[in-house]
Amino acid sequence: MSTTVASVTGGTDAPYALSHLDALESEAVHIFREVAGEFERPVILFSGGKDSIVMLHLALKAFAPAPVPFTLLHVDTGHNFPEVLDYRDRTVAEHGLRLHVASVQEYIDAGKLRERPDGTRNPLQTVPLTEKIQAERFDAVFGGGRRDEEKARAKERVFSLRDEFSQWDPRRQRPELWNLYNGRHAPGEHVRVFPLSNWTELDVWQYIAREGIELPEIYFAHEREVFPRAGMWLTAGDWGGPKENERVEKRLVRYRTVGDMSCTGAVDSDATTLDAVIAEIAASRLTERGATRADDKMSEAAMEDRKREGYF
Amino acid sequence: MTSATEPYAEFAERLATTTLLRFATAGSVDDGKSTLVGRLLHDSKSVLTDQLEAVERVSLSRGQDTPDLALLTDGLRAEREQGITIDVAYRYFATPRRRFILADTPGHVQYTRNMVTGASTAELAVVLVDARNGVVEQTRRHAAVAALLRVPHVVLAVNKMDLVAYAEPVFASIAEEFTAYAASLGVPEITAIPISALAGDNVVEPSAHMDWYGGPTVLEHLETVPSSHDLAHCPARFPVQYVIRPQSARHPDYRGYAGQISSGVLRVGDAVTVLPSGRTSTIEGIDALGESVDIAWAPQSVTLRLADDIDVSRGDLIAPSAQLPASTQDVEATVCHVADRPLTVGQRVLLKHTTRTVKAIVKDIPSRLTLDDLSQHPAPGQLVANDIGRVRIRTAEPLALDPYAESRRTGSFLLIDPADGTTLSAGMAGDAFAEGAGAPAAVPTDDEGWDF
After folding, report:
1. Which pTM was predicted?
2. Residue of B nearest to A174 (CA)
3. What ipTM describes this predicted complex?
4. Which of A240, A306, A312, B201 has the lowest CB atom count within 10 Å?
5. Does B87 contact A26 at a Cβ distance shorter than 8 Å?
6. What is the 3-state secondary structure (H, E, C) of A226-255?
């Protein structure tokens, strides 16, 4: 927990320069406070993944010594990693937060959603998410999306207006000027807010290291029963893998992202510490999503199409 | 980016001292902007294997035999279908010295608002010209937007030098014409660099074809130009975002004003005034995200505690009592209209300035600016999308407004449609161009001059 004072780079920055992490932190905190000041019912999407963990950490700092004035929302696909759910519940309890859960499994059990032939539940999250937003009348929904993740996300605003169907229309976005965020919306509409827009994967990890933030253990190298599918190592489990022709083996792996088990792949790694993870990412020639997300490979515009429908 | 062999400790130390530079690119449709951006990303090794493979796959499927680097930056379906960039996109790359946020803005005439959007947060703008065409109308437009938005550093990238035999006189005459023009608009710092984005000359690597050029490559310049610390030398401004009052057993009396310092430096003990009420107090404490500090500066997000229990709420501005901004209900400004519906005289709007949103009415639109030649057209009656014009606005409550020339944060505002929240216009208080700027060189001006 420190604010780095006066870093000098190549002798060109005066004493009042901020390190890039301090600049990103300061911007994200500003965004959290804008939402607290302008909205009635904000909520933070919290999956127990590293981006949402960093968001929560920033929110805790933004309002200290007062509690975070937001509730949390998790869209549980029913195929989440148990370690991550455990982390989620511990964190919620530790900070005395309130957690809403929207459950894909409940929608499937009720016949309101149908399992896809490929078994992935990631695209199924959109309906429970948007219905929960409507039911709870959330007017601002924080997401951990970063513009470096994907080319459609590179076009995303920090404050992104969604209509009553939660739809994103990339051609009708409000221009975002200076740091003047326009959060006005009609009843039924809401705004998706992305405080980590300008962060890269490496920034997130560096910040986690600097701030000493605890993460679910699956982010670090561990032995796990996995099987290969579409060029990734998927975790074997009762979510539906492996199929008959897929062979399970025990490998030393870790996760770069955590999402639904059916579409989030592990990477071979021996990085057991934060330092080792950062060194590994800095040297990696693959993006986070390219390495470990099956759903973004479905088509060239898979992310854009899902975002249009209300996905985060 | 580090190599796999670099010791972590050195890597971590270097990263902790890395600074952030936000910059924007502007160029006409065929000036090679996408190629320049693609080359910066590619040659700084910021394009990763899977991204490049995706570009190669799509290029191949379209029958192209070389990867089209523009596909790295055109993210939306409609953009790829039409082969043009529609909207501002943000790109990220890093070198050992700096992290960069690039606002990649489309070059089409009809997307002036996008360049304004990109330039509003930029500390540097790269204006591209084609060496064969030299300074054209579009170049002047880009220079004018950079000047209007007070982007502190402008780089003129004279591209396609390979197509003019890398000839120094071609570069020198374009650089001279542009520099004279931009300087006359008040652009404080202009750096001209001869490049070939396609061949890679002077983008990341120095060119072997232009030994007559002794300056930096584009990337070297981006790495060494001073970044946002300029803000610290302006009078301190602190728009209050949110009042933090835990009212808990541990903090029964804590009352802190949360905000981001928009300019200047604040110290414990400073005598301050709260606007618009005019009440005065002293800074008793500064909490910098969990740590108590004696001094803080822009753009840090902090929480201030004042010595006196006075009424302060969101929308107020805290400033040093000795350096207060003027308070006014009559705003004179230049606006860039960004909405598809027009802005008209008599229209009722909301004006968002820092953390304060007030009712306002457009009293007058005295003139509209043509960016091509900086001529002004009196009394246009309305402004339509992408227009830039002067406005007079009356606000329902006083605003503590600095001239945009003195602070890009406390001199800027949005006009918003109260009916549906649409962002109508981007506003800059005070004179349009930098004070003391003369008539621009090589441009015909009308009787009234251009500095309206």
Report:
1. 0.90
2. B423
3. 0.89
4. A240
5. no
6. EEEECCEEEECECCCECCCCCCCEEEEEEE
